[in-house]
Amino acid sequence: MSDEQTLPPQHQDQQPGQETEMRPQPLTIGEYYQAAGKLDGMTAIVTGADSGIGRAVAVHYAREGANVAVLYLNEVEDAERTRLEVQAAGGEALLFAGDAADGEFCRRVIEAVIEKWGRVDVLVNNAGEQHPQQRLEDISEEQWEQTFRTNIFAMFQLTKAVLPHLRPGASIINTSSVTAYKGNPTLLDYSSTKGAITSFTRSLALNLAKRAIRVNAVAPGPIWTPLIPSTFDAEKVSHFGAETPLGHPGQPADVAPAYVYLASADSAYVSGQVLHVNGGIVVNG
């Protein structure tokens, strides 16, 4: 590869993408990560957990002592791999395939999790999709609505379903994006949803403060997940992350520890905040 090329050129024709088809495979957990039982006995729900950041969060949580409900759309092979990795890390996993923007699906998930483990301590709203277009006029109403449905409506539905079961000390963590802060000329609808997620996070944190439920977000920069080859053409993928100060894309393993921090007692005095894991991009947000 050239100095500016960060990845082998590749493309997948369908979203959600498949992690099993990616080369190189994303790194789920870092070689030097040291678990410390920060989530012992907890139960977490993670959306978009079949691959990418969601899988890495699920595996890190299992390493820290949590059981994990893995929500995904239809990526069965990837989701089964997440189950195996969670189990290998010492946790139990429940898999749920469906649309998190469907309120009835969310209610069924919560009922099953409560029946299995009797509690929910952490909700990670992570599922997302993006579809680049060169001009605003090229974005159809259907695309605009679908992106909002997946990226922010699902957060509303699942959070609403789980709230009656969250106790003081529980944590909600939403996945925002660097695009919410610096924009993106070809991801207008996606960036808009990420801005909404940041505002939702801050407002919900204020709303739930008296119930001692913390709400925070993580805003990743360019991270090597199935969303990338299923979104961009092979040429753009080959230079993915090169524009960051660190000069390369991050791995899911680089992001997941931020979710561990926000789920654990280490962040007991942190709410309404956004952690930026983006390769050195300064956004002052």
From TrEMBL:
Residues 1-25 are annotated as: Disordered. Residues 1-18 have a biased composition (Polar residues). Belongs to the short-chain dehydrogenases/reductases (SDR) family. Coiled coil: none annotated. GO terms for molecular function: oxidoreductase activity, acting on CH-OH group of donors. CDD domains: SDR_c1 (cd05355). PANTHER family: NADPH-DEPENDENT ALDEHYDE REDUCTASE 1, CHLOROPLASTIC, NADPH-DEPENDENT ALDEHYDE REDUCTASE-LIKE PROTEIN, CHLOROPLASTIC-RELATED. Keywords: Oxidoreductase. It holds the Pfam family adh_short_C2. SUPFAM superfamilies: NAD(P)-binding Rossmann-fold domains. This is NAD(P)-dependent oxidoreductase.
